[in-house]
Amino acid sequence: MEKLVSLCKRRGFIFPSSEIYGGIGSTYDYGHYGVLLKSAVKAAWWHAMLQERDDIVAIDSAILQHPRTWEASGHLANFTDPLVDCRACKQRFRADHLDQLACPRKPSKHPGEGAECDLTAAREFNLMFETTIGPVKESGAAIFLRPETAQGIFVNFKNVLQFARKKPPFGIAQVGKSFRNEITPGNFVFRTREFEQMEMEFFVPPASAAEWFAYWTAARREWYLELGIRPDHLRLRPHEPEELSHYSSQTSDVEYLFPIGWSELEGVANRGDFDLRQHSEFSGETLEYFDPRSGERYVPHVIEPAAGADRATLAFLADAYDEEEVEGETRTVLRLHPRLAPVKVAVLPLLRKDGHPELAGEIYRALRGTLTCEYDEGGSIGRRYRRQDEIGTPWCVTVDHESLGERTVTLRERDSLAQQRVGIDVLAAEIERRLSATWTTPKLAV
């Protein structure tokens, strides 16, 4: 993980927030390439949800919801973790994660195992961030930053049902920020207090809930495989009965083998009719579906695939990171799926003279209308190739002396390092062809 974190900071993917002030625990900012990468991950998710299907619609609900929302959902009463304090080091820990944590004073031991450790009894700690709404804090109403995007979907079920002209089975999808006051966040962007979720609530007739749960569990695993995650680094893990949330009758995690070990990448839950019934009870609104053909009226059950954009981005970065020896030097490369790569193609003039920059600029301007491109003329061509390798650029276009007379360029491929002469007039079409082709990570052969 250390090498990946270093690369992310060095190349402007992700770095600590407020770093000039010493940072703030487990809070990160995304730089240029990080923004492009995470945007590509979200775009791929939206593509799978909306463009490849006709039974899902989009929504963008507010971060601030009516406080009753969280009473109805159970977050006020149940969204807690067991917390312990150490009287010696003044640190706080999750009581159920002590065997996974290191003592601040004796890193070789777990909290509570050191001679100086003095832990308090465990108490429940609510993970929601509370604030006030109104101009004066003392007289303002208490409100919470949402801990998940799902509830914004449930409270809008009736609105969407009216305008979308859908009937179960159908889904409502959303991407947005959520906030959780985690006791022990950490492991880079794996667990942070501010994060972005990609959630979809799929509303189904009650009798077909188990069938749709199996469908979405398999479909969400397949999405990661299609985007290049190695199959042996991905698995499905059904929850044991004692692990299930209060609303869930079935939950399975899509887990990835992170550098920190197997951990949840995405959860798929059968939430039943819990949420719609709760919001119906607390709001007084009827949240059900009436089938005009059969005359049947029922509260749909919900299958929820819930992913994190930040955690998915970390998984794609971890799976893509690679090192190999080339001509006696270590080459660091991100073998990202071309669809996810922050930059699809870099245009590099061999020299900063003799007409190379002018022709390279012409090619760059022609490509950037349809592809995310980068122009780079600083440093030796070898160094520029290595920079592009480290940000995961699939193809580099090099303009040289032959380009001026023959109107051809060298197209370099990131993974194999193969180089091919391509005519400038067909260059865009060739890159588009490669971009749409089936791609498999070369790391499978290792």
Architecture overview:
The protein is α+β, with helices and mostly antiparallel strands and 446 residues long. The chain has 3 domains: 2-70 and 128-317, BirA Bifunctional Protein, domain 2 (2-Layer Sandwich); 80-126; 343-445, Anticodon-binding domain (Rossmann fold). Helix content is 30%, strand content 28%. It is built from 13 helices and 23 strands. The protein has helices at 2-10, 32-51, 67-73, 75-78, 150-154, 157-164, 209-226, 274-283, 309-320, 356-367, 381-391, 401-406, 427-436, and strands at 14-16, 28-30, 56-58, 80-85, 92-94, 123-126, 130-133, 141-144, 170-179, 194-204, 234-238, 250-258, 261-272, 289-290, 297-298, 301-308, 321-326, 329-334, 345-349, 373-375, 395-399, 408-413, 419-423. The protein has a 7-stranded mixed sheet, sandwiched between helices. A 5-stranded mixed sheet has the order 20-19-21-22-23, with helices on both faces. Strand 7 and strand 8 (141-144) form a beta hairpin. Helix 2 crosses helix 9 (309-320) and helix 3 crosses helix 8. It is globular. The model has no long low-confidence stretch (mean pLDDT 92).
CATH architecture assignment of the largest domain = 2-Layer Sandwich
The coarse silhouette is globular
The CATH class designation of the largest domain is Alpha Beta
Number of domains: 3
What is the tally of beta strands?
23
If you consult CATH, what is the topology of the largest domain? BirA Bifunctional Protein, domain 2
CATH superfamily of the largest domain: Bira Bifunctional Protein, Domain 2
Instruction: Order the strands across the largest sheet as they lie in space.
Output: 3-9-10-16-13-12-11
Give the count of helical stretches: 13
Distance between the termini: 20 Å
Please indicate the percent range of residues in DSSP E strands (runs of 2 or more): 25-35%
Helix content percent band:
25-40%
Residue windows where pLDDT falls under 50 for at least 5 positions: none
**Major sheet description:** 7 strands, mixed
